[in-house]
Amino acid sequence: MRCSSLGHGVPYLSLALSQAAAARDALYTYGTSVTGVTRQLAVDRKPALYTGDFGDCLGGQSLFNITKFDAAYYTDNSTVLFHLDGASNLDHEYLTLRFSMSAYGENRFQMNFKPCSVNIYSMCPLEASVPITAWAVFAVGPAQVGDIPQLAFTIPDFEGFVRLQIFANTTGEELGCFQAGLENGVTLGHLEVMSSVLAMIALVAVSASFATAAYGVSVPHMRTHYAHSISAMVVFETFQGIFFSGALSVNFPRVLVAWWSNFAWSAGQIHSHSMVRSVDSFAGVNGNASQVGGAGAVVINNRDRNLDHAHQLTRSHPYNASNPYDYTWSGNPVTPGTQLPGTSSGFPATLSVLKIPAADAFTIGLIWLLVLLGLLVLGMSLFKSSLEALVKMKQIKYDKMAYFRSHWRSYTVLAVLRTLYTAFAMIMTLALYQFSFGGSTGVRAIAAIIFLLFLLGIGGFTIHTCCVRLYHGQFSVRQDRIAFVHGKTLRVVPFVKVVRPSILQEAETPERTIATIPFFRLQIQEEDRHQLPVHQDQTYVKRFGWLFARYRQTRWWFFGFYPAYQLIRAAFIGGASAAPPAQVYGLLVFEVLSLMIVTKLNPFEGQRNTALAVWMLGITKIATTGLSVAFLPGMNLNRIVATGIGFIIVTVQALLVVALIPLVVLGAMSSYMSLTRNKERFSPAELESTRVRYFEHIQTRALDVQMSKEEKELRKILKEVESNAPPPEPSFFVMSVKRIPKIEDEDGDEGTVDASLAEGAAVDPNLAGRLSQHDRTNSTSSRLSMHSLPRAAMPSRLSWSSKDPADRDTVSLQRPESSLSRSLGGMSGYGLPSSNSMTAVTAYNIAEEEPATWVSEEVSQKSTRKPRCR
């Protein structure tokens, strides 16, 4: 039996080995390139250009069902091929085919042929009972494809498409049209890799921000450290701002669309096949994802043909590894509702790369937002439970994160509100785009409800927060003007500055005014003088700190400006998609004005948030919108030039992302320093001085004292003088010398001291009584009996090993302070006087973390102090 089994197994093993060897064998052919070079080529090599996904360029009206449409261009043998699989319900029809290839807006190759002349027998003539299987190879020359730049075969995201049109010979009517986008295998869109890296960066920012908000005891002090951590909202705004650059209704180069797909996850545009299919039916998107065409999902049952067999004919065949002529670079039928491959116009083109229909964008974004909120609540609960478990296991101290553990429900609610506040821009943009794009009635109704909930909810929170603070004050909007004056930047470059006329009049040397425009001025007057500053009001910070905690003390109301800015920006991007010129030009003007206002307000307390949110992100938005003007449909810009401009936009936005990464890393390091603020020892020790300077910096920024231009110049001069000063030479200073009295000194000076005391008693009669009392207290009879040593030789202490009480007091008074406390004790390093009016606030910020310890030390010192004898 064993031998029989082995004998039967040998043929199967031989067959498997022969199939494996056949799969590994490669076929070769000879080909001549455009330059005239002949070489041996592998049949299964990858072409220079090949097609990806394909769609129906008649809008679903083609009388064919196509499951496979591939085309390729080989530069090494100057050939173009195409492969077509499908079916049709047309019977006995003679056809003419037109095959064309376009690259960078120009038609590079075109050929008309009849199927019978190139041996495509399945279409000669077309029979409804015969499935379509078309394969053809054409030779091309330099005159046809020589205009394509050689650089186009290597640069990312080749822009072009291949089109196959089918005409009836009898009537000349176009029966079908299919188009597939061309690729060269190089792209900037790496969703799996880039999206994962960017998500990790955002997760680090979220973790660092949460750590500073959850660690500590005093709420105002926690707010100070939280304000200087990198803002997760700003990080998401950066990613969303880059992605929504693709929502403008212009003809983008393909490189931009691929680049923006890396940031789609930040706006909730994450593709899930099951989710898209479920949303399609609700959003009114119809179509078959397994084929393209308008001949019906199933071929008509003609001439007694089996329907099941017909369905098999319309299915694409899988890749056969044993066939050397098969390939893996083929595309798939385009997702229903997405844009036709090879075109990049507006927001639908940006979403087509993600295989998300434009009609589903709002619904998918809303679903992922709800998923994020659920994960957030679950994560906070698990984090709290893990802390409690570690405490019970005695892995951490009982008072570790005690404030968070006792207020974790409030933290969860505030985290949800903060997430909704961050998602305000995304929801507003997608909802307004849904109104402009259209869609089913149900989707538009949900978009309207969510739009109103966010608008009234976030707007109501901001108004309520301002009203609570200004309950005893006044908030007024007054008319003002903005003046554009001549100025200089970098001291030599002419520049136009934006100031208010009132400030211009107060200047000693006012600049020449170019023009003025009407504007408004917000004025806040707090009538209650006993009211705590907004950052020191613990109750107010607990309730509304999630809105204003990162802003300066004099700009705490900026959280009301942010939703208004995002709403207007969403109105341009999403609501004005039907009017491209008004959309682009209006958004450009709005971004310029917003940058002027925000830079003037300078709202953030942390410098990293200011650099990212105000300067880098603002300039990037202006540059992107300004360069996008060239893509307007009326410009008719050459597509090669448009691709060059697209690479400039990619470079600008990539520099923004590259600059974001070190800011997030520095924010994580500063958050780590904040978490160790109650520890004397810091690791690594090399950064101890940096930690001290960081704590001094955040204390200075918390005061919100804005230095004038003259003070900044003086501070700069002092720093230059200090840096140019010669290095200090080795030296030492004698602060005090304590000399122990000798026996002979006391013997010689006894008479002198007694004479001087007698002199003083003659002048001051009261001194005599005190001296007599002193002598009586320190006499030998009142203390203890001595041996036969002279009076001056009496011991100064009871034993030579014990210390004198005076010495003990001296040691306790001269005990050095810790390096952190000593460094934080002064503000001279930042140009502020030691007697600043805000010293009380600074001292509060230093001491509030461990009040119980400080009080206990003070009580212990009082308890060890000896009472004086009288």
Automatic annotation (TrEMBL):
Residues 47-189 form the ML-like domain. It is a multi-pass membrane protein. One of its GO terms (cellular component) is membrane. Residues 764-836, 848-870 are annotated as: Disordered. It is found in: Membrane. Its main location: membrane. It comes from the Eukaryota. One of its GO terms (biological process) is fungal-type cell wall biogenesis. InterPro entries: TRP_C, TRP_Flc/Pkd2-like, TRP_N. The chain crosses the membrane at residues 197-218, 230-252, 361-383, 411-433, 445-471, 556-576, 582-599, 611-632, 644-669. Keywords: Membrane, Signal, Transmembrane, Transmembrane helix. Belongs to the transient receptor potential (TRP) ion channel family. This is ML-like domain-containing protein. It comes from Cytospora paraplurivora.
